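[worker-b] picked up task from shared queue
[worker-b] task type: protein-ligand structure
[worker-b] ligand name resolved to adenosine-5'-triphosphate; SMILES cross-checked against name lookup, match
[worker-b] sequence length check passed
[worker-b] input payload:
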Amino acid sequence: MRRLAFINEKGGSCKTTLCVHTAAWLATGRSQRILLADLDTQGHAGKSLGVDVRGLAPTVHEWLLGEAPFEAVVRRTPVPGLDLLPANKALAALPVALAPHADRATRLAARLAEVPAGRYDAVLIDSPPSRSLVTENVLAAADAVVVPVALTYLALDGCAEILESLEALRAARGSAPGLGLVVPALYRKTQLADEILEKLRERFPDQLSRTVLGWSVKVDEAQSHGRTVFEHAPRSPGAVALAEIADEILVRVLRG
Ligand SMILES: Nc1ncnc2c1ncn2[C@@H]1O[C@H](COP(=O)(O)OP(=O)(O)OP(=O)(O)O)[C@@H](O)[C@H]1O
Ligand SMILES: [Mg+2]
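[worker-b] inference finished, payload out:
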Protein backbone atom coordinates (compact mmCIF):
# COMPACT_ATOMS: atom_id res chain seq x y z
CA MET A 1 0.00 0.00 0.00
CA ARG A 2 1.80 3.10 -1.27
CA ARG A 3 1.38 6.29 0.72
CA LEU A 4 1.32 9.52 -1.19
CA ALA A 5 1.04 12.98 0.38
CA PHE A 6 -0.07 16.17 -1.34
CA ILE A 7 1.87 18.96 0.29
CA ASN A 8 2.71 22.60 -0.07
CA GLU A 9 3.04 24.97 2.83
CA LYS A 10 1.50 27.68 0.74
CA GLY A 11 -2.26 27.87 1.17
CA GLY A 12 -4.58 27.59 -1.82
CA SER A 13 -2.11 25.77 -4.06
CA CYS A 14 -4.58 23.04 -5.17
CA LYS A 15 -3.48 20.31 -2.70
CA THR A 16 -7.03 19.25 -1.91
CA THR A 17 -8.29 19.58 -5.49
CA LEU A 18 -5.47 17.44 -6.81
CA CYS A 19 -5.59 14.90 -3.98
CA VAL A 20 -9.37 14.35 -4.18
CA HIS A 21 -9.46 14.18 -7.99
CA THR A 22 -6.47 11.87 -8.19
CA ALA A 23 -8.15 9.61 -5.62
CA ALA A 24 -11.47 9.68 -7.50
CA TRP A 25 -9.90 9.07 -10.92
CA LEU A 26 -7.74 6.18 -9.75
CA ALA A 27 -10.73 4.60 -7.98
CA THR A 28 -13.26 4.93 -10.80
CA GLY A 29 -11.11 5.07 -13.94
CA ARG A 30 -8.26 2.77 -12.95
CA SER A 31 -9.93 0.30 -10.56
CA GLN A 32 -7.59 1.13 -7.71
CA ARG A 33 -8.79 0.77 -4.13
CA ILE A 34 -7.99 4.13 -2.61
CA LEU A 35 -8.03 5.46 0.93
CA LEU A 36 -8.20 9.25 1.09
CA ALA A 37 -6.91 10.52 4.43
CA ASP A 38 -7.82 14.11 5.28
CA LEU A 39 -5.27 15.65 7.64
CA ASP A 40 -6.56 19.21 7.45
CA THR A 41 -8.82 20.88 10.02
CA GLN A 42 -10.68 22.53 7.13
CA GLY A 43 -12.13 19.11 6.21
CA HIS A 44 -12.13 20.08 2.54
CA ALA A 45 -11.39 16.59 1.20
CA GLY A 46 -14.65 15.30 2.69
CA LYS A 47 -16.58 18.45 1.84
CA SER A 48 -15.59 18.33 -1.80
CA LEU A 49 -16.98 14.77 -1.97
CA GLY A 50 -20.27 15.86 -0.45
CA VAL A 51 -19.57 14.42 3.01
CA ASP A 52 -20.88 16.63 5.80
CA VAL A 53 -17.89 16.66 8.14
CA ARG A 54 -19.04 19.44 10.47
CA GLY A 55 -19.60 18.00 13.93
CA LEU A 56 -18.71 14.52 12.69
CA ALA A 57 -17.18 12.13 15.25
CA PRO A 58 -15.08 10.08 15.41
CA THR A 59 -12.69 11.46 12.82
CA VAL A 60 -9.04 11.06 11.95
CA HIS A 61 -8.32 12.97 15.17
CA GLU A 62 -9.69 10.25 17.47
CA TRP A 63 -8.08 7.58 15.28
CA LEU A 64 -4.62 9.18 15.66
CA LEU A 65 -5.11 9.46 19.42
CA GLY A 66 -6.07 5.79 19.64
CA GLU A 67 -9.56 6.67 20.86
CA ALA A 68 -11.41 5.15 17.88
CA PRO A 69 -10.58 2.17 15.68
CA PHE A 70 -10.05 2.48 11.93
CA GLU A 71 -13.38 0.80 11.17
CA ALA A 72 -15.28 3.39 13.21
CA VAL A 73 -13.67 6.31 11.36
CA VAL A 74 -13.35 5.17 7.75
CA ARG A 75 -16.41 5.71 5.55
CA ARG A 76 -17.48 5.05 2.01
CA THR A 77 -17.85 8.04 -0.28
CA PRO A 78 -20.23 8.56 -3.21
CA VAL A 79 -17.27 7.64 -5.45
CA PRO A 80 -17.12 3.84 -5.89
CA GLY A 81 -13.86 2.35 -4.62
CA LEU A 82 -12.94 5.44 -2.65
CA ASP A 83 -12.94 5.43 1.16
CA LEU A 84 -12.39 8.50 3.32
CA LEU A 85 -10.83 9.14 6.70
CA PRO A 86 -12.58 12.45 7.42
CA ALA A 87 -11.23 15.41 9.36
CA ASN A 88 -12.76 18.53 10.82
CA LYS A 89 -11.96 21.22 13.38
CA ALA A 90 -11.44 18.59 16.11
CA LEU A 91 -8.00 17.99 14.58
CA ALA A 92 -6.87 21.43 15.80
CA ALA A 93 -6.46 19.93 19.29
CA LEU A 94 -4.07 17.23 18.06
CA PRO A 95 -0.71 18.96 18.72
CA VAL A 96 -1.59 19.64 22.36
CA ALA A 97 -3.08 16.17 22.89
CA LEU A 98 -0.01 14.48 21.42
CA ALA A 99 2.59 16.77 23.04
CA PRO A 100 3.38 14.42 25.99
CA HIS A 101 3.89 11.42 23.70
CA ALA A 102 7.33 10.51 22.40
CA ASP A 103 5.82 9.07 19.20
CA ARG A 104 3.89 12.26 18.43
CA ALA A 105 5.45 12.79 15.00
CA THR A 106 4.99 9.20 13.81
CA ARG A 107 1.42 8.46 14.89
CA LEU A 108 0.03 8.57 11.36
CA ALA A 109 2.68 6.16 10.07
CA ALA A 110 1.97 3.74 12.93
CA ARG A 111 -1.82 3.87 12.47
CA LEU A 112 -1.56 3.35 8.71
CA ALA A 113 0.65 0.33 9.34
CA GLU A 114 -2.32 -1.19 11.22
CA VAL A 115 -4.70 -0.90 8.25
CA PRO A 116 -5.41 -4.43 7.02
CA ALA A 117 -2.84 -5.43 4.39
CA GLY A 118 -4.24 -5.70 0.88
CA ARG A 119 -7.34 -3.61 1.57
CA TYR A 120 -6.14 -0.60 -0.42
CA ASP A 121 -3.75 -0.11 -3.30
CA ALA A 122 -2.79 3.38 -2.14
CA VAL A 123 -3.38 5.98 0.55
CA LEU A 124 -3.60 9.58 -0.62
CA ILE A 125 -3.07 12.12 2.14
CA ASP A 126 -4.37 15.69 1.94
CA SER A 127 -2.28 17.94 4.14
CA PRO A 128 -2.81 21.36 5.64
CA PRO A 129 -0.96 24.52 4.67
CA SER A 130 1.83 25.65 7.03
CA ARG A 131 4.26 23.56 9.00
CA SER A 132 2.98 21.82 12.13
CA LEU A 133 3.00 18.53 14.00
CA VAL A 134 0.38 17.35 11.53
CA THR A 135 2.65 17.97 8.54
CA GLU A 136 5.50 16.26 10.42
CA ASN A 137 3.23 13.23 10.74
CA VAL A 138 2.34 13.39 7.06
CA LEU A 139 5.99 13.54 5.99
CA ALA A 140 6.91 10.68 8.33
CA ALA A 141 4.11 8.52 6.90
CA ALA A 142 4.51 9.19 3.16
CA ASP A 143 6.62 7.23 0.68
CA ALA A 144 6.46 10.10 -1.80
CA VAL A 145 5.04 13.59 -2.09
CA VAL A 146 3.18 15.39 -4.86
CA VAL A 147 3.65 19.15 -4.78
CA PRO A 148 1.06 21.24 -6.57
CA VAL A 149 2.37 24.71 -7.34
CA ALA A 150 -0.01 27.55 -8.10
CA LEU A 151 1.73 29.64 -10.73
CA THR A 152 2.10 32.82 -8.76
CA TYR A 153 5.14 34.90 -7.93
CA LEU A 154 5.64 33.30 -4.49
CA ALA A 155 5.29 29.76 -5.76
CA LEU A 156 8.99 29.15 -6.29
CA ASP A 157 9.63 30.25 -2.75
CA GLY A 158 7.19 27.63 -1.46
CA CYS A 159 8.90 24.95 -3.54
CA ALA A 160 12.28 25.80 -2.08
CA GLU A 161 10.83 25.42 1.42
CA ILE A 162 9.49 21.97 0.62
CA LEU A 163 12.83 20.78 -0.68
CA GLU A 164 14.44 22.17 2.49
CA SER A 165 11.89 20.33 4.68
CA LEU A 166 12.57 17.05 2.88
CA GLU A 167 16.32 17.59 3.18
CA ALA A 168 16.07 18.45 6.90
CA LEU A 169 14.01 15.31 7.48
CA ARG A 170 16.55 13.18 5.64
CA ALA A 171 19.35 14.64 7.75
CA ALA A 172 17.44 14.15 11.03
CA ARG A 173 15.91 10.71 10.43
CA GLY A 174 18.04 9.20 7.71
CA SER A 175 15.00 8.93 5.41
CA ALA A 176 12.36 11.15 3.84
CA PRO A 177 9.66 10.73 1.22
CA GLY A 178 10.79 11.08 -2.37
CA LEU A 179 9.74 14.03 -4.50
CA GLY A 180 7.26 12.24 -6.76
CA LEU A 181 5.77 14.95 -8.92
CA VAL A 182 5.61 18.74 -9.04
CA VAL A 183 2.35 19.86 -10.65
CA PRO A 184 1.91 23.39 -12.02
CA ALA A 185 -1.62 24.52 -11.22
CA LEU A 186 -4.05 27.41 -11.68
CA TYR A 187 -2.29 28.32 -14.92
CA ARG A 188 -3.60 31.31 -16.86
CA LYS A 189 -1.75 32.54 -19.91
CA THR A 190 0.28 35.51 -18.75
CA GLN A 191 3.93 36.35 -19.23
CA LEU A 192 4.61 35.90 -15.53
CA ALA A 193 2.94 32.46 -15.38
CA ASP A 194 5.00 31.35 -18.40
CA GLU A 195 8.21 32.60 -16.77
CA ILE A 196 7.42 30.74 -13.54
CA LEU A 197 6.61 27.60 -15.51
CA GLU A 198 9.95 27.85 -17.32
CA LYS A 199 11.78 28.21 -14.00
CA LEU A 200 9.97 25.14 -12.66
CA ARG A 201 11.03 23.18 -15.78
CA GLU A 202 14.67 24.15 -15.20
CA ARG A 203 14.51 23.34 -11.53
CA PHE A 204 12.59 20.05 -11.74
CA PRO A 205 13.52 18.59 -15.13
CA ASP A 206 12.58 15.06 -14.05
CA GLN A 207 9.75 15.66 -11.60
CA LEU A 208 7.56 18.24 -13.33
CA SER A 209 4.24 16.86 -14.59
CA ARG A 210 3.70 16.99 -18.34
CA THR A 211 0.15 18.24 -17.85
CA VAL A 212 -0.40 21.69 -16.41
CA LEU A 213 -3.65 22.26 -14.51
CA GLY A 214 -5.19 25.36 -16.03
CA TRP A 215 -7.65 27.62 -14.27
CA SER A 216 -11.12 26.27 -14.92
CA VAL A 217 -14.30 27.59 -13.37
CA LYS A 218 -15.85 24.10 -13.54
CA VAL A 219 -13.42 22.86 -10.89
CA ASP A 220 -14.50 25.49 -8.40
CA GLU A 221 -18.15 25.00 -9.34
CA ALA A 222 -17.93 21.21 -8.82
CA GLN A 223 -16.57 21.70 -5.30
CA SER A 224 -19.43 24.03 -4.45
CA HIS A 225 -21.79 21.16 -5.36
CA GLY A 226 -19.82 18.60 -3.31
CA ARG A 227 -18.92 16.59 -6.41
CA THR A 228 -15.84 15.92 -8.43
CA VAL A 229 -15.43 17.70 -11.74
CA PHE A 230 -15.48 14.25 -13.39
CA GLU A 231 -19.17 14.05 -12.44
CA HIS A 232 -19.95 17.76 -12.75
CA ALA A 233 -18.34 18.56 -16.10
CA PRO A 234 -16.48 15.50 -17.42
CA ARG A 235 -15.52 17.10 -20.72
CA SER A 236 -14.26 20.37 -19.28
CA PRO A 237 -10.56 21.20 -19.61
CA GLY A 238 -10.21 20.94 -15.82
CA ALA A 239 -11.57 17.38 -15.78
CA VAL A 240 -9.35 16.31 -18.68
CA ALA A 241 -6.23 17.80 -17.07
CA LEU A 242 -6.97 16.32 -13.64
CA ALA A 243 -7.42 12.84 -15.16
CA GLU A 244 -4.14 13.17 -17.09
CA ILE A 245 -2.30 14.27 -13.97
CA ALA A 246 -3.80 11.37 -11.97
CA ASP A 247 -2.54 8.97 -14.65
CA GLU A 248 0.92 10.53 -14.47
CA ILE A 249 0.86 10.03 -10.70
CA LEU A 250 -0.16 6.39 -11.15
CA VAL A 251 2.53 5.62 -13.71
CA ARG A 252 5.39 7.79 -12.53
CA VAL A 253 4.95 7.82 -8.74
CA LEU A 254 2.75 4.97 -7.51
CA ARG A 255 4.15 2.39 -9.94
CA GLY A 256 7.45 4.14 -10.69
N1 LIG B 1 -8.07 24.30 -11.82
C1 LIG B 1 -8.77 25.14 -11.05
N2 LIG B 1 -9.46 26.16 -11.59
C2 LIG B 1 -10.14 27.03 -10.83
N3 LIG B 1 -10.19 26.99 -9.50
C3 LIG B 1 -9.52 25.99 -8.88
C4 LIG B 1 -8.78 25.02 -9.62
N4 LIG B 1 -8.20 24.16 -8.74
C5 LIG B 1 -8.59 24.57 -7.54
N5 LIG B 1 -9.37 25.67 -7.59
C6 LIG B 1 -9.94 26.43 -6.49
O1 LIG B 1 -8.86 27.06 -5.82
C7 LIG B 1 -9.09 27.07 -4.41
C8 LIG B 1 -7.91 26.43 -3.69
O2 LIG B 1 -7.81 25.08 -4.08
P1 LIG B 1 -7.55 23.96 -2.99
O3 LIG B 1 -8.55 24.03 -1.90
O4 LIG B 1 -7.42 22.68 -3.74
O5 LIG B 1 -6.12 24.40 -2.45
P2 LIG B 1 -5.36 23.87 -1.14
O6 LIG B 1 -3.90 23.92 -1.44
O7 LIG B 1 -5.92 22.57 -0.71
O8 LIG B 1 -5.75 24.99 -0.08
P3 LIG B 1 -5.42 24.94 1.50
O9 LIG B 1 -3.98 25.30 1.62
O10 LIG B 1 -6.34 25.97 2.08
O11 LIG B 1 -5.71 23.56 1.97
C9 LIG B 1 -10.40 26.32 -4.20
O12 LIG B 1 -11.43 27.27 -4.05
C10 LIG B 1 -10.59 25.53 -5.47
O13 LIG B 1 -11.95 25.35 -5.79
MG1 LIG C 1 -6.65 21.98 1.15
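[worker-b] attaching auto-annotations
[worker-b] The domain at 2-254 is CATH 3.40.50.300 (Rossmann fold).
[worker-b] releasing lock
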